[in-house]
Amino acid sequence: MDTSGVMALVLAAGKGTRMKSAVTKVMHNMSGKPLLGHVLTTLETLPFTKIGIVVGHGRQQVESYLAQGEEAWLSSGVCEVVVQEEQWGTGHAVQQALPLIPPGCTVMVVSGDQPLLTPETLGGLLAVHKSEVAAATVLTAHMEDPSGLGRIVRDKDSDVSAITRIVEEKDADDFVRGIKEINTGTYCFDGDALRQALAHIRPDNAQKEYYLTDVFGYLSERDMLVAGYKMRDAQEAMGINDHCQLAAAEEFFYDRIRRRWMKEGVKMVCPGSILIDADVRLEADVTLLPNTWLRGNTSIKKGSVIGPQTSMMSCQCGESCVVSYSVAEEAVIGEGCLVGPFSRLRKGCVLEARAHIGNFVEIKNTVFGCESKANHLTYIGDAEVGEHVNVGAGTITCNYDGTNKHKTVIGDRAFIGSNANLVAPVSVGPGAVIGAGSTVTRDVPEGALAVERADQKVFSNWETRK
Ligand code: UD1
Ligand code: CA
Fold this sequence. Notes:
Blueprint: E1 6-12, E2 29-30, E3 33-34, H1 35-44, E4 50-55, H2 59-67, E5 79-83, H3 90-97, E6 106-111, H4 119-131, E7 136-142, E8 151-154, E9 163-167, H5 174-177, E10 181-190, H6 191-198, H7 214-221, E11 226-230, H8 243-263, E12 267-268, E13 275-276, E14 281-282, E15 287-288, E16 293-295, E17 299-300, E18 305-306, E19 311-313, E20 316-317, E21 322-323, E22 327-329, E23 332-333, E24 338-339, E25 343-345, E26 350-351, E27 356-364, E28 367-368, E29 373-381, E30 383-385, E31 390-391, E32 396-398, E33 408-410, E34 415-416, E35 421-423, E36 426-428, E37 433-434, E38 439-440, E39 449-450, H9 462-465
The protein binds uridine-diphosphate-N-acetylglucosamine and calcium ion.
């Protein structure tokens, strides 16, 4: 696809009143990233020379996402912000961006609240625009219930004839309201024709706004071609205006993601119960079991079985792991590890190859060595655990003194008996053994046995003496 001299404009200044939220509309999250992030991710796959983003309402939220965020869109040099101080309509929004558009440029305009449009559809729109040598090309769709949307009025009653104008529902008569071909709000323009037409639009309509859609009537009246590109799947053009539409779009999007991964060789049991966020990466022969949610930028390598009932936020999981009924966040799980059921891996955990983390074990900010095990009822925080270590049931690293966090170091092959308290800062040398029930407050040297508990007293014949 030749997109030289093609730029994109994203309209994202509107308030989104119907979300009834302090969060501005395009910043609402869908499948792990803001609506605007989805639109930019799609645009990024097409070689636009520039992407202008028109911001206004809630612009601090939008700008800080664009500047920082996971992707830092503004740092690429392709994206640029345009401010629309007051939101006087879609036409007014594009007027603010005119200084960004060089002469002779083709401009694609998309809305920041339509996260489901695909690169294929946008590429198709651009291809039609070029092949028709049109002044403007509108992405249209057929909708059984077109209420609320702009209607496409064509020269003759045919999908291929030129578009003469677009009429907003609020300004439509009964005939126009009966039209089921709608304006998706996505267009390609010859930049020069757009500039010329925008100079002539007026806010004399039901909403007292500068409509971008008035540009098409202007062009058509001057015998400049307005072409249409009708998309097959109207759902893809769904715009988000309230939480019902957001939920519907999110469901549609999760379904799309699942299908994509299943086609890539991922096995899913009861796929409808599995959620995979947009930036998750999976390999073939990963198995996902019911009620599993893979979030953020989690990645999972081949042969691993995740779930049921497991949530992973931005984790990296190696090959052939089993993670069941567990919650993990920003953890790195090495190849062949067993996690769960009912484990919690918190931020900063690194499990090395073939480690076992069992039921009711919580681990935080810890490197846990190769083939080491903590199989039951344990808390390990701020620790460094070597290889082939056995951590007995009920072991606690007492890492917090009420003010500061301290470190526990456990050497290779150490054996921590059940119900031990390791009061940090403390270290247990390689091969050392800690007797069950001990509270360890001083370092234990390599190969030593440390036992800290009162002698056992035995009173014989207690039952008969009572
Ligand atoms: C618009 C179209 C309508 C189309 C529909 C598809 C117009 C006049 N109408 O209507 O034909 O069927 O989209 O969803 O264009 N925005 C700004 N600044 C503004 C106003 C809006 O940036 O001053 C942005 C919004 O943030 C949004 C987009 O433009 O991303 C569309 O605006 P919206 O108010 O939702 O337009 P609709 O009434 O839905
Ligand atoms: Ca809209």
